[in-house]
Each structure stands twice: as structure tokens, then as C-alpha cells.
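This part of the workshop introduces the protein records we will be handling. An example says more than a description, so a record of this kind follows:
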Amino acid sequence: MHASVLARSALLLGLLVIAQPVAAQNDSFFERASRSRMKGPPSASVLVYEISDFQCPFCAEFASTVYPKIDDAFIRTGQVQWVFVHLPMPNHANAWAASEASLCAGALADRFWQMHDRIFAGHNEWTVADDPAAVFARYAREAGVAAEPYEECVRQDRVASLILADVIFAASTRVSGTPMFIINNERTVVGVKSFEEWQELLKKELERKR
């Protein structure tokens, strides 16, 4: 196994361990929740961590205009693995609930990315809603997540420790704003770049890894 793959596996395992109470470290629920926000093969030459906040308008812009093109060109083709890292900012009142909604959908029905897309697409709806939790529950039902287990997941804060692990990881990177991206644990990209800029960055990284 390549050294980069070993390093990646160790880091992801570390996130899983931090996220789980000692008594629950073998709980497949947490493993499913954590893995659900990883897209692309673990053997990919390039690993990108996206540190993001669902209520951040710049993150929403990236998710709707740039990420789908990266997904088509690099992630679905097996060249890049992409990991979504949650950083719900304290000044964004509904960001934590959005993160919980996405991870509950991921753990229960492997629908993290469907919820990711829907939450960002509905940014102008739930950020001003009187009851954003009800909006997220509707998104989850529309994505095919069973209502009762989803509501229990949210009510019992079953993914809270995983979100906290993400926050700790993000803090360790000295994040200066969202969205922020870490490429192969070496290069940092801050803010919304165009797809053309990302294309150039990722192609150079792929060439470097050959």
C-alpha cells in the first residue's frame, strides 16, 4: 500500500476514534455516518478535505456551481476522494442542525450527499424558516430516509460527537474561514475558486502523484 494511502487511512481512523465515546467505538452507526460523507475511492491519488458550514453563503455557492463539476470530472472518475468536514459556525444558528440532518441521513440510509445537495439548494428556505428542523426532516423524507429513525437520530444527538470531531480537526488546521480545502494534507485553498482553477490545481496534483 502506498504511504499516502496509509497516512490517509490513519487520519480517517483517527477521526472515527475521536468521534466516538469509548463504549461505542465499534458502533457501525458512527462508521456509517463518518464514511457517508466520503466520496470517491480510498485508493484515489488525491484526497481533498472540504471544511464547510451549511449556512455559509460562500459554501452554498461552491456546492451549487463548482462542486458538481469537480464531482463529474475527478471524483466519479476515481481520481479524487472528497471528504466533507463539518464546521458549523457559532454565528450560524441553524448550521449545527443542518450538519446533524446530513449525517443522520448518511448513517441511516447512505443519503449524506443527497442531503448535502438538498440542504445547500434550499439555503434560502431553511435559513429563514421558523422551524428549520421540520424543513430538514422533509428533505430527509424526500431523500428516502425513514422518518422515525431519522427523528430519533436528531432527537438523541446521535451524530453530535462526530460533528465535534470535525470541529476539532478543522481547528487543528487553523482554518481561517469557510469554505476551506486541504489537498493531500499539504496544500490549503481558501474561498470559492472557479472550476477552471480547481481543474488546474487537481491536474497538477495528479501529475505530481504519478
